[in-house]
Design brief:
Keywords: ATP-binding, Biotin, Ligase, Nucleotide-binding, Transit peptide. Acetyl-CoA carboxylase is a heterohexamer of biotin carboxyl carrier protein, biotin carboxylase and the two subunits of carboxyl transferase in a 2:2 complex. One of its GO terms (molecular function) is biotin carboxylase activity. Its cofactor is biotin. This protein has 450 residues and is of the alpha+beta class. It contains 16 helices and 23 strands. Strands 14-13-10-11-12-15-22-20 form an 8-stranded antiparallel beta sheet. A 5-stranded parallel beta sheet has the order 3-2-1-4-5. Helix 12 runs antiparallel to helix 13. The protein is globular, with a radius of gyration of 21 Å. The structure holds adenosine-5'-diphosphate. The site of adenosine-5'-diphosphate has 20 residues, from strand 9, strand 13 and strand 14.
């Protein structure tokens, strides 16, 4: 096991990684920007190194600065968290060049999944089911349009380099095609500096069901079951749960095995998530693979009783997987709600300001709060305005949901606008209780939530 690791991140995920490292007796190094000098992750770590100015481009995204900090402090490995440098193949390469272990997959796996269309080509060859569509290299308008026409509308145009729901456009009919293509390309160019597009059949009522996989450096892999992340706003997850309601053992196994096939196709190592769309008829389709720890990993930790960060550290240091597939099982039900500084009554505009009063629900065996802020801290314009992740567990879905509802009610935050009431209404919407989930849930039940 490593003696010392550096966490190339901030906020709740930096704190969460530090916690596990401490439990394992691994020393920790935090990095921070000007805006984060007094942040919780800096206070929690054994050492902290300043790496630049507040904007991420001038600090958390500077791979060279992060490597320099690791070399200076003698950290043997870097945990990238999610976002920032976590899926950056160049950074991964720089770690290797400096004999630092990147706690994540090999460079080739990150590269392979970096483009949605290249990823689909690999998965097609590996026999993983794909959403019908076009993911070829030829980007001429006529080829893309013909693919859309042949498939039949509605279709979804997607940026190959996309992420965070950006560069996606639904096209409902042939005469909307050109406008949609131009808009998607423009958005993609602005966000990613690339406008390579793919086309998919637009599924009108799918669920987002993703599989947590883990592979070691000895070629062994397991899946830690699924998470249902269907409750989304603008293709962004809001509440996640595990297991997925209504999942049969047979489908779970089929999806788990497909996810492992996807991971094996790119010689994966470490924690990864294979995202699928699950259609109303029980068909499922590969969407993309995220080559990092996900925001919503705690729901999987609750139902499996495993610490995924501990698994990451073990696998990255060359140990075999802690458990085999038949040693893993699902116990109970877990939910996660993302508590944000944002205004649901005003287009969910990010809110900034000081957390004048902050009282999270009391943590227990059933309630977990992953956060990177304390009372008095500021939520600034520079980073994602997530305040905390509230995660609850109980022996079944109804009980877990009742716990979530109670915990949301107990949460007290003042000083800035939050989405707590929105989350509470969502958790209490009758259709949510009935687990009548699909990715259009929030739109469909608008009246019950707002
Ligand atoms: P991003 O990487 O930008 O998050 P994804 O490809 O992961 O984009 O898709 C995000 C969300 O968009 C999915 O969870 C789903 O809600 C929706 N989505 C993606 N592809 C389709 C599709 N073919 N049909 C319907 N909805 C889709």
């Amino acid at each position: 096991m490593f003696n010392k690791i550096l966490i190339a991140n901030r906020g709740e995920i930096a704190c969460r990684v530090i916690k596990t490292a401490q439990q394992m007796g691994v020393r920790t190094v935090a990095v921070y920007s000007d805006a984060d000098a007094h942040s919780l992750h800096v206070a929690m770590a054994d050492e902290a190194i300043h790496i630049g100015a507040a904007p991420s481009r001038e600090s958390y995204l500077l791979g060279d600065k992060v490597i320099e900090a690791a070399l200076k402090t003698g950290a043997q490995a870097i945990h990238p968290g999610y976002g920032f440098l976590s899926e950056n193949a160049d950074f991964c390469r720089k770690c290797a060049d400096n004999n630092i272990v990147f706690i994540g997959p090999p460079i080739g796996a990150i590269e392979a999944m970096g483009s949605k269309s290249a990823a689909k080509q690999i998965m097609e060859k590996a026999g993983v089911p794909l959403v019908p569509g076009y993911h070829g290299e030829d980007q001429s308008r006529d080829i893309i349009k013909k693919a859309a026409d042949d498939m039949g509308y509605p279709v979804l145009l997607k940026a190959a380099a996309g992420g965070g729901g950006k560069g996606m456009r639904q096209v409902w009919s042939e005469d909307e095609f050109d406008e949609g293509l131009e808009a998607a390309k423009r958005e993609s160019m602005n966000a990613f500096g690339d406008d390579h597009m793919l086309v998919e059949k637009y599924l009108t009522q799918p669920r987002h069901v993703e599989i947590q996989v883990f592979c070691d450096t000895f070629g062994k892999g397991v899946y830690l079951f699924e998470r249902d992340c269907s409750v989304q706003r603008r293709h962004q997850k809001v509440i996640e749960e595990a297991p997925a309601p209504g999942m049969t053992e047979e489908l779970r196994q089929k999806m788990g095995e497909a996810a492992l096939k996807a991971a094996q196709a790119i010689s994966y190592e470490g924690a990864g998530t294979v995202e699928f769309l699950l259609d109303t008829d029980g068909s499922f389709y590969f969407m993309e693979m995220n080559t990092r720890l996900q925001v919503e990993h705690p729901v999987t930790e609750y139902i499996t009783g495993q610490d995924l960060v501990e698994w990451q550290l073990r696998v990255a240091s060359g140990e075999p997987l802690p458990l085999s597939q038949d040693q893993l099982s699902i116990n109970g039900h877990a939910f996660e709600a993302r508590v944000y500084a944002e205004d649901p009554d005003n287009e969910f505009l990010p809110a900034t300001g000081v957390l004048e009063f902050l009282q999270a629900p009391e943590e227990s065996e059933n309630v977990r709060v992953d956060t990177g802020v304390r009372q008095g801290d500021e939520v600034s314009v520079y980073y994602d305005p997530m305040i905390a992740k509230l995660i609850v567990w109980d022996e079944n879905r109804d009980k877990a949901l009742a716990r979530m509802s109670k915990a949301l009610k107990e949460y007290r935050i003042s000083g800035l606008t939050t989405n707590l009431d929105f989350l509470y209404n969502l958790a209490n919407a009758p259709a949510f209780k009935e687990a009548d989930l699909d990715t259009g849930f929030i739109e469909k039940h608008h009246g019950d939530i707002f």
